[in-house]
Amino acid sequence: REMSGRTQASEVLTDFQEQTYEVVRRIPLGKATSYGAVARVLGASPRAVGSVMRRCQDDSVPCHRVIAANQRLGGFGGVGRSQWNRGPAVDRKKRLLEDEGIHLDSFGRVPDDDFLIDLSPPTTPDAKRPRRDVVS
Predict the structure, then answer these.
(1) How far apart are CA 107 and CA 102, in angstroms?
(2) Would you tell me how many other CB atoms lie within 10 Å of the CB of residue 36?
(3) Catalytic positions, please?
(4) What is the rounded CA–CA span in Å between residue 66 and residue 131?
């Protein structure tokens, strides 16, 4: 299977992986969200989302935009929990976010203005008005 320049000959994606990738692809350029926010859309656990992100080899899925709930980077590229927020893989995640205009604050967190809390579409009567914290 061909995926964004990488061959995934033996990998067959589950429905959950496909659904997770679709939600993550909706995160706009220059924004980040939490594993929990993605999980709420899917009715799943943040750990399940993290597991899918850790295994993702599809360059069309912006995995770097999914971060920890405390707005710190968390892991990246399959790096285990002992390497969260540090190391070459996390440095790459930081660079990818910076290339999109997201610059971490002095505590190593994504600023509030760049962090999406809710990925569900608005349900209010003024749903046509764009909201900072929602991906449509």
Answers:
(1) 14
(2) 17
(3) 63
(4) 19
- How do beta strands 32-34 and 115-116 pair? parallel
Give Cβ neighbours of residue 125 (< 8 Å, ≥ 6 apart).
Answer: none
Q: Tell me the C-alpha distance between 111 and 86, whole Å.
A: 18
- 72 forms beta bridges with 109
pTM of the model: 0.77
Q: Please write the tens of the pLDDT for every residue from 40-61.
A: 999 999 999 999 998 898 989 9
> Measuring CA to CA, which residue among 12, 15, 3, 42 is closest to residue 26?
42
Residue-by-residue DSSP string for 70-85: TSB----TT--GGGTT
Distance CA 110, CA 27 (A): 14
pLDDT, residue 129, reads: 46
Q: Could you tell me which of 92, 41, 30, 89 has the C-alpha nearest to residue 65?
A: 30
Amino acid identity of residue 83, one-letter, is Q
